[in-house]
């Protein structure tokens, strides 16, 4: 034993001597170059090559890192012995992961590779234009040199695909918002996300079944249309404009779309975005298979730049396209609160410019209560391909609500009551939101719920009728006043009328001359 300790001490002594010798031979300025040289020599003799996939790639979050993490989570859950478990806030899915500096073997197409999860503490923060996380995280992939050309590309593609599948299978849609404006978080993301749990589906959505089927068909075609869009040279995106009175189900429709397709939602708060360039950055950071939503588009942006030509005036399109002031985004009226210089042009490019194609399989949805306030350029096909009018509750929609809220089958309802409901529903112009509220209130007593609903509908229809009569009377008076006004104006300015008649006469004479 004594001998053993003695030889250990002499080995340590030799090592210490070698270290001090190295320090003398290789001063600090040479050390880095020496290490690099050793590394090269080592690489020449090793049969492996290594790939580092860091969490943050320069300034941006590395999508591949997230994909690898998700992919490995499906492998480690069965084979790993020490795992990290995570569960996002409100999420139902638990994600397995490699613990810090742990390794895992994976096999792809008969080739075995090694993954290592490396976590190190970040050095004291040097100057950076945004705060960086305390830990540096990354994966290292080790592949045999001879296998690299065989699998690397296809293996990484496979990982990306698998990660997307897992994300969709988890059924946790994410709802993103840009509440921080355009500023980035420590991982370089301008969007904040929470799990999206809206229960609205196309089954629960009360609307005309034919229209509903049309929308579902359109969504299905879109989601399966990759080759079609490729063949026709179109960007793989689609725009929906949902318009109608408040409480008719526009937001519910967006949730139903997301749940149907399994897409994430990016809820873009335009009032938080201050420049066109910020808008572009936000767009660049959205993922594929997502719905980008701008709710109440007419309220969320200063429309003064569109209104210069008048909202319904077709010349406003020409103006907005040609006016360099509008296109540049500079010097445009900034609205009352000031600072907001998003232009119509910026918004148009957002939905159908070159940048709108920086991802694929994306749906843009705008909602508004006032379609007439929107610039026609925003509504044209290619930007808003499908315009969906969400109307007051119709009879077929009411049937869906009755079934959802009271669990009523068709046969449960009295024929007479049904007929009365059918007669009065269109006249009442009640929104599905109002009707839902009535049904919720009396959901424990189905009969009472239906009777109260019928009463409310009848009252509303009567009120509508009365107010309609008043409006009609007022309109007739207004028409009379307008006619009087016109007559007065004609008498006051007879020249205007003469000019017009003269010009018509001249035109007729010219025409006759031409014929002769
Ligand atoms: N068509 C509908 N089908 C089922 N429920 C509906 C429908 N319309 C409204 N509702 C109910 O009313 C509530 C409000 O609806 P929603 O937020 O979708 O209306 P909206 O059209 O987006 O209104 P706003 O224009 O004010 O944003 C929802 O929570 C939903 O329960
Ligand atoms: Mg809404």
UniProtKB/TrEMBL annotation:
CDD domains: RecA-like_BCS1
Reaction(s) the record says it catalyses: ATP + H2O = ADP + phosphate + H(+)
Transmembrane feature ranges: none
Positions of the UniProt region annotated as Disordered: 308-336, 472-516
The protein, known as: Probable mitochondrial chaperone BCS1-B
Listed Basic and acidic residues bias regions: 486-516
Any Gene Ontology biological process: response to stress
Record InterPro entries: AAA+_ATPase (IPR003593), AAA_N_dom (IPR025753), At3g28540-like_C (IPR058017), ATPase_AAA_core (IPR003959), Mitochondrial_chaperone_BCS1 (IPR050747), P-loop_NTPase (IPR027417)
Domain AAA+ ATPase: start-end pairs: 236-394
Similarity remark: Belongs to the AAA ATPase family. BCS1 subfamily.
GO molecular function annotation: ATP binding; ATP hydrolysis activity
Pfam family, one: AAA_lid_At3g28540
UniProt keyword terms in alphabetical order: Hydrolase, Magnesium
Signal peptide limits: none
Top-rank lineage group of the source organism: Eukaryota
Cofactor: Mg(2+)
Gene designation: LOC105114626
């Amino acid at each position: 034993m004594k001998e053993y300790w003695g030889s250990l001490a002499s080995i340590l002594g030799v090592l210490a001597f070698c270290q001090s010798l190295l320090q003398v031979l290789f001063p600090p300025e040479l050390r880095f170059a020496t290490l690099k040289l050793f590394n090269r020599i080592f690489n020449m003799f090793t049969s492996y090559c290594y790939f580092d996939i860091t969490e943050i790639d320069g300034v941006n979050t590395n999508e591949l890192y997230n994909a690898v993490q998700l992919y490995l989570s499906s492998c480690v859950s069965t084979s790993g012995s020490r795992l990290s478990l995570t569960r996002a806030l409100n999420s139902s899915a638990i994600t397995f992961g490699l613990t810090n500096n742990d390794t895992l073997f994976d096999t792809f197409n008969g080739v075995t590779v090694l993954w290592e999860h490396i976590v190190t503490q970040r050095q004291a923060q040097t100057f950076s234009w945004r705060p960086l996380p305390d830990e540096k995280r990354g994966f290292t992939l080790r592949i045999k040199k001879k296998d690299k050309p065989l699998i690397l590309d296809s293996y990484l593609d496979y990982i990306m695909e698998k990660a997307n599948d897992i994300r969709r299978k988890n059924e946790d849609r994410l709802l993103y918002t840009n509440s921080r404006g355009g500023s980035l978080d420590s991982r370089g993301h301008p969007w904040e996300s929470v799990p999206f749990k809206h229960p609205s589906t196309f089954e629960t959505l009360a609307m005309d079944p034919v229209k509903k089927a049309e929308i579902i068909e359109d969504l299905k075609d879109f989601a399966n249309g990759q080759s079609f869009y490729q063949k026709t040279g179109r960007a793989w995106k689609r725009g929906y404009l949902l318009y109608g009175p408040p409480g008719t189900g526009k937001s519910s429709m967006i949730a139903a779309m997301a749940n149907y397709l399994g897409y994430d939602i990016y809820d873009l708060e335009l009032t938080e975005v201050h420049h066109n360039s910020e808008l572009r950055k936000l767009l660049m950071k959205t993922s594929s298979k997502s719905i980008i939503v701008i709710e109440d588009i007419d309220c969320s942006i200063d429309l003064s730049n569109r209104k210069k030509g008048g909202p319904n005036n077709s010349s406003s399109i020409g103006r907005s396209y040609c006016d360099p002031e509008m296109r540049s985004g500079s010097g445009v009226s900034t609205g009352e609160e000031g600072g907001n210089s998003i232009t119509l042009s910026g918004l148009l490019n957002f939905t159908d410019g070159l940048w709108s194609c920086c991802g694929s399989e994306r749906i843009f949805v705008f909602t508004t209560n006032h379609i007439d306030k929107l610039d026609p350029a925003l509504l044209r096909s290619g930007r808003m391909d499908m315009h969906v009018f969400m109307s007051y509750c119709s009879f077929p929609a009411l049937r869906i609500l009755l079934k959802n809220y009271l669990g009523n089958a068709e046969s449960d309802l009295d024929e007479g009551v049904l007929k009365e409901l059918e007669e009065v529903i269109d006249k009442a112009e009640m929104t599905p939101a109002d009707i839902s509220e009535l049904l919720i209130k009396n959901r424990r007593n189905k009969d009472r719920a239906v009777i109260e609903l019928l009463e409310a509908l009848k009252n509303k229809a009567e009120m509508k009728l009365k107010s309609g009569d008043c409006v009609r009377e007022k309109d007739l008076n207004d028409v009379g006043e307008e006619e009087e006004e016109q007559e007065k104006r004609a008498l006051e300015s007879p020249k205007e009328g003469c000019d017009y008649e003269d010009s018509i006469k001249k035109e007729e004479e010219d025409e006759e001359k031409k014929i002769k």
